[in-house]
Records
---
Amino acid sequence: MKKKISKALSILLPILLGVFLTIYAYNSFTPEQLEEIKSYFRNADYTYILIALVFGFISHAARAYRWRFMLEHMGYHSPFKNNFMAVWIAYFMNMTIPRSGEVSRALVLKKYEDIPFDKAFGSIIAERVVDFIILLLFIATAVLLQFDVLKTFLLHTIPAEKLLVYGIVAFVIFLSAILLFIYSKSKWILMIKGKISGLTEGLLSVWRMEKKWSFLFYTAIIWLGYVLTFYTAIFALDETSGISFGVVVTAFVIGSLAISFSNGGFGVFPALISKILALYGISEEAGTAFGWIIWTSQTVQIIILGGLSFLLLPILNRKK
């Protein structure tokens, strides 16, 4: 019973959060501001959004192709078409149940290629470890590029004295967590250690694979595609077309985190993007419209291609 409640909450809470943020944002705008947001939608140059979608498509195709290197390393082969459709189904599923996409990808290969679920799922986890490290590098880059802006924002938001106290408290908590992690015998800590051990093993498996450089090359293509997707979209609105690449990286990181920790970023992505862009002088109306334009276009692409993949998988894999 507890597991069912926990599973239901894991599905409902992100959706409810997205609904709440959407309604809250809508009610916080005056009728004049809402009309201004609508004008941004009407006047946007959607040619750039279409180009952004092409970059997104390329990055997802590269993800599907990269998967073959992990599978071949384990002695399995799956045709590109099935990998490609499995990836789109995964993105589609993540919009309904957070993190269910990884499971659905593995299930697709189990059903159509008879690849053991644990092997396919393990290859996906190994991929995610690499992608997580890349995301951490982007976060570090964003902090370095925008350190002055972030420092000024924090100092204006939180007095220096309180910021110092918070910093000391955070350091003490961090040090305590490290000591607890090293010496504690708690089953929860042991479980976390097991998870970290599994992630380390996944990362090492990438390094040991025969075609690791091909794997890393396609990893670079994936993330370059992600960044270009976001960067190209800024030219759709005059108000965002002048932001620097450093701002793009910062907004991209925030957007990626919003998507990772919610149902595809519903409600959360536009709200966070508007807040980040506001730090750089972009009006809340323009930032909100920009966030919703990107999120909507990407979501429509996922729904269409994910839905088509559901339909085409059994047809293209029909046994003669």
Note: The CA atoms of residues 269 and 310 lie 26 Å apart.
---
Amino acid sequence: MQYNTQQKKMPLPEYGRSIQNMVDYALTIEDRAERQRCANTIINIMGNMFPHLRDVPDFKHKLWDHLAIMSGFKLDIDYPYEIIRKDNLVTRPEPIPYCTARMRYRHYGHTLEVLIKKAIEFPEGNERRNLIALICNHMKKDYMAWNKDTVDDKKIAQDLYELSGGKLQMTDDIIRLMAERLSQNYRPKTNYINNRQNNKRRY
């Protein structure tokens, strides 16, 4: 008995040893026409293994790419598509640059600092006040998520003043808008409460 660890390593093990053996056999066929027919048969069998992918764009193209890979790019046939190149198998994607922007308070995050800069640019008015109230509520949520503790409005007001360079302040009007926004987002389920009270009256 021969264990899998003793056998030849498969380039694409998801197709199994049987498909790999078929590909290896195709490499030994000397007649080109017969080799082409064998390759077509292998592609059909590979496709039947994943019937749910038949409608996926380029599915057939990928099968032929996989056949080329499993043959070590040595199968001399007429491919119906331009197959993947061997040197492209080891190429790596371009690295994504990591944001290195310095944050004064990491628990607020970089996005909130961008919002504060936008709010500074807004002209005085209702839209600006509502944006500041939204920012302050978001700061309270972020602070409590990071510190797992309560926070009063005085701390948020200090941080807002500092992060905005003194250009934004938490006034009484802003505090009122903050409370209004919270009450709009949190509405008690009156129907659920009324149903519970009605059920209590029945029993």
Note: Residues 11-85 form one domain.
---
Amino acid sequence: MTNKVAMIVGGGSGMGAAAAKKLAADGYSVAVMSSSGKGEALAKELGGLGFTGSNQSNDDLKRFVELTMEKWGRIDALVNGAGHGPRAPLLEITDEQWHTGIDVYFMNVVRAVRLVAPVMVAQKGGAIVNISTAWVGEPASMFPTSAVARAGLAAYVKLFADQYAPHNVRMNNVLPGWIDSLPQTDERRTGVPMQRYGTSQEIAATIAFLASEGAAYITGQSLRVDGGLMRGV
């Protein structure tokens, strides 16, 4: 594989950074964006393009896409990570906090896809992978705004697949369970059939697969990578 380009939004640390490293190792030229500046530093290490900005800003995302296109002229893969939204007892979550949760966990994807999908349609191919959560199908009270917003993301990926599969542009969600970039506790670990936390590298490998030609017939899916944690069929 040569001359393929991957954009990672929210790639400064954790699963996003691991995805950037894996895609670079697989031969992609990588563009990495984060709000912290860590994405810019990582991109420099990987010989790619770094940009500091927010995935809650249409202007920042537009500039990031423009810089990527100016440098390489194409976008073959887009990885959308997210930050952390509000958490509180359900009836104590304010209107503002619900809106923030939607911004963090759903609109981050909508904004980036709105800009990148037309590029992929024009070049007759591309893959988008969104980092979601294993709890999207079995909502947990510990992640209320995430569970609600990402249920919407599960619907969005289906709507996108219906419309853009004919253009050879694919979108899938990765659903991580307890991953080592999160605080570890014995109680959480013993609740996982595999009896361990997953690694950011395992999520990155799944992302890289879904972006690859090996996954060319996979779109509109939400793939659990959770060590067997979720029991829903």
Note: Helices lie at 14-25, 38-45, 58-72, 95-122, 144-164, 186-190, 200-211.
---
Amino acid sequence: MNVETIVSALRRVREVKPLVVNVTNYVVMNNTANALLAVGASPIMAHSKKEMAEMMYFAGSLVINIGTLDSVWVPRMLHAVEQANANKKTVVLDPVGCGASSIRTETSRQIAALADSLIIRGNASEIIALAGEQGQSKGVDALDSSEAALGAAQYLVETYNCSVVVSGETDYIVKMDGYVQLKNGHAMMPYVTGMGCTLSALTGAFAAVGEKTGLAAAAVLGVAGEIAAEKSAGPGSLQMNILDALYQLDVETLTQRLIMTVQE
């Protein structure tokens, strides 16, 4: 994996404008839809079982975000994954708050086991909890460092034959043959709700055009966050400026700002 992989994926998203189906939480629907539009993809928020087979037939990928799950949502999520499998589409799982309650942990593991083609994107505490290790968790916020989750991420990669993105101050993209470390982003980003959810949605956009590790999405959002923070007075303006930065991001800026280390 190299910079050209990321650049090529960004170009492809903007050319293809892939449709990304999101079964996501109430808090972030607007944020994630706007981020997908800004990067060049086409979002749709679909939750009904009655339309999911049709949606996954022509969509590029499926993003499952368990942030506001309940007894109605869980069967819908599992049905959506089954339809993604039937149409050979990649599933991006965002196990929001995994470890904070048994239903979140159990549902996350159920979805991960069901998906044929999978990318998991979570913070360190969620990744550790999903893998079954003892991680510190406070609701949906991470109390573990992303580096502390590397062992858990590798376990998930091997267990589910997937790629894992551990997001935090440093992002790690973990796959079978090693991992990539990204040090972009800004300390203000965690103060905007749903920033990790936005990364998961963007991961779906890049997966839809063949970049199935999560690297391109993490790189693009990290650089966009840096750029946005330079002109933001606080989280409110940062949220708006990130959308602008995603929309305006060019290959030269992305290449110049990216801080990436590959470990194989």
Note: The chain has eleven helices and eleven strands.
